[in-house]
Design goal:
Helices cover 19% and strands 29% of the residues. By secondary structure, the protein is α+β, with helices and mostly antiparallel strands. The structure holds zinc ion (ZN).
């Protein structure tokens, strides 16, 4: 396992739609290991594979005090409600903005054992799921802002996704 440098805006890979994982083999397990290690090192609560330079549909989530989630080929199947949230991204260091997100989401995908799982979430987890599934579709939270003037500078200790 290794800590991989995180790609930052405007790296073109961040705007690219990632490919589905076809075979869940050791290379995918290795990728997930690197993603978890990199996310912890960067003190993020979520990370998508393209952020470390791999255009595959894989996301990891690590909210402090909660079980880690690994999702292979995640798909957003339901969103409900609307709320305005403060959001930052490890790929856009030093900035945050207010983004419209859903109140609750349901995402399905496979875990690292290949088992199909469904994650129903609200709160921070719902926000992270939307943010990371956006990443694998080449969408950044700044794409949801009316203009980049709406970004503000932040201290490093705020949550980064
Ligand atoms: Zn991000």
């Amino acid at each position: 396992m290794a800590i991989i440098p995180i790609r930052t805006f405007p790296d073109p890979l961040l705007k690219q739609k990632s490919k589905r994982v076809r075979i869940l083999d050791n290379s995918v397990r290795h990728l997930v290991g690197n993603m978890l290690e990199t996310m912890h090192y960067a003190q993020g609560v979520g990370l998508a594979a393209p952020q470390i330079g791999v255009p595959l549909r894989v996301i990891v989530i690590g909210i402090p005090g909660e079980e880690e989630i690994v999702l292979i080929n995640p798909k957003m199947v339901r969103r409900n409600g609307e709320r305005l949230l403060n959001e930052g991204c490890l790929s856009i260091p030093g900035y945050a903005g207010m983004v419209k997100r859903s109140e609750t989401v349901t995402v399905k995908g496979r875990n690292l054992n290949g088992k199909e799982i469904r994650v129903k979430a609200d709160g921070l987890l719902a926000q992270v799921l939307e943010h990371e599934t956006d990443h694998i579709n080449g969408i950044l939270y700044i794409d949801h802002l009316e203009s980049l003037d709406k970004l503000r500078q932040i201290e490093a200790e705020e949550y980064q996704l």
